[in-house]
Amino acid sequence: MRGVKVICTLACLLMLAGCGNKENPGGSGSGFNLPNIKTEAETETETEEVTTEAASTTEEVTEAATEETVAAAFSEEDNYFSPEKALVISKKDMMNYLDGSWELLPNGQPIMAPDVIPDTFTFDAETQEATFTRGSDSEYITFDFELEDLFESIAGTCNLMRLTGKDISGAFSQYSDNMISAYVTYQVILVSDTNADMLLLREIGNGEAQFSYDGLSYDRTAFDGFWVFRSLNDESKMKRVNNIDDQIRLKNSTFYAIAWYDMGDRVSLQRILINPEVLNLYGEDQDVLSYCLPNNEYALSSVTYFVKDMEDMANSGEYVPRFCQVKTDENGDVTELRSLVYDIFGYYYPAGVYPNNDPDGGDYSDPTGPDGAGPDARDPEYYRDTDNIYMGMWELKGDPMTTLTVVMESPQVGGYELCFDFYRLTYAHCYANISGSDLSTNQGTINNDRDFGGVLTQTEDGVKFTVTESGFEAIGVGTEYEFIRPY
Asked: Left if phi > 0, otherwise alpha if psi is -120 to 50, otherwise beta: which for 392?
């Protein structure tokens, strides 16, 4: 259903303040309404004689489920929200899935140094309390938390979390006046992705909450402003499908999804339904998209898609979460992945609209932008050649414990992020722009507080980073590091 709804500023603010209290209309109260999903253990007992209908809800899809069968079940209209197609999530069910501990993955990087104790967020569904703890248990903040619907026009999404400060200790105490009794709201997204339960949080509002600054820290967000968390629970609470299976990938299709784990030659995608709306904010109408999950057996699972012509770009992978419009070919390989531009309050601009670069919308055409800052979304044609050279994980020649990881970033900060782990020495990360065939950093830090930068160039058997700026005495200006692939 392509419903269009005018939302006044007051309604938006009331929603953000958590004043709404919609209950689940017609919710079953027995989970996420995912009938007949088989876990990996259960599929081992499946018989080989499976009908086409049953095959669509199991991990072991037999030959009876042909490509034509999958394609016939999907059409353009399936991209759009309607009440009967939306996954309705009760507050009780959402609380159950959040219940437990989650570790924060800084910048979406799943590989952390062995000596790093990650910050954690622990949710208690029974008491409705949440505790954020820094690596040391002596530093924590406790909140009361409650769940609401982010989008009033799509009841039952239950994807807005309101945290109200309750107790504080340790190094956080200096911020107590701005955290205790104050509240902040976050967009919530859950998925079972690459054998782990994952959680995304994004602050909703003006982006100035004290807890976001000094607790979660904006410096640790991944792509598109999300904080990425990985479940520490012993067992997954979300049933999984075999996301490598060829038959569950949509073929010859255009659809919308949340991109999660990006491995260069593959990307994991969680399908969403979109709802085009008109948001009336500050007296101006804006075309925006809200979203919900589809009510099908794959709603809480990501599906791995291969990316066409990127076979040689396999790398260690990183969580690069963003909302996308996806196009696939007859094999189910991704031929186009267009990131949607975030607007405000959880809403996105329609695909192809880049308001900061082109006030009238439309497809992006000038990769440098009018002011050299670049577009709001990564244009694949502009970045593809450089991606093929630099993206992925590298190890230092003669010292495999020193690594460099190059990942995509927002064009507004250069298009690339370079993450260095100098073994037994220090860490550094930089943002970089394309400069001819090189990557040149425009900002960066070492030890989190000193300036660091340089130029990354291609060599015969790898890449070379030449330091042009350093506030760390052990790594001086002019130092060269040659990296090769770890495989």
From this structure: left
Which residue matches tokens 């330091």? 467
DSSP 151: -
**Residues whose CB is less than 8 angstroms from the CB of residue 311 and which lie 6 or more positions away in sequence, other chains included:** 265
Could you report the per-residue pLDDT of 167-176, keeping only the tens digit for each?
887 666 666 6
DSSP state letters, 326-388: EEE-TTS-EEEEEEPPB-STT-BPPTT--TTT-TT------TT-TTSS--SS--HHHHHHHHH
DSSP bridge pairs for 278: 6, 287
Tens digits of residue pLDDT in 259-310: 999 888 889 999 999 999 998 876 778 899 999 999 887 788 899 999 988 8
Apex CA 95: angle with CA 226 and CA 89, to 5°?
85
**Whole-prediction pTM:** 0.62
- pLDDT tens column, 351-377: 877 664 433 333 323 333 333 333 446
Residue 248: phi and psi, rounded to 5, are -95, 0
Q: Which residues contact 53 (CB under 8 A, 6 or more apart)?
A: none
On whether the CB atoms of residues 119 and 130 are closer than 8 A, the answer is no
Q: Name the DSSP class of 396.
A: E
DSSP 262-323: E-SSEEEEEEEEEEEEEEEETTEEEEEEEEE-BSSTTTTB-EEEEBTT-GGG--S-EEEEEE
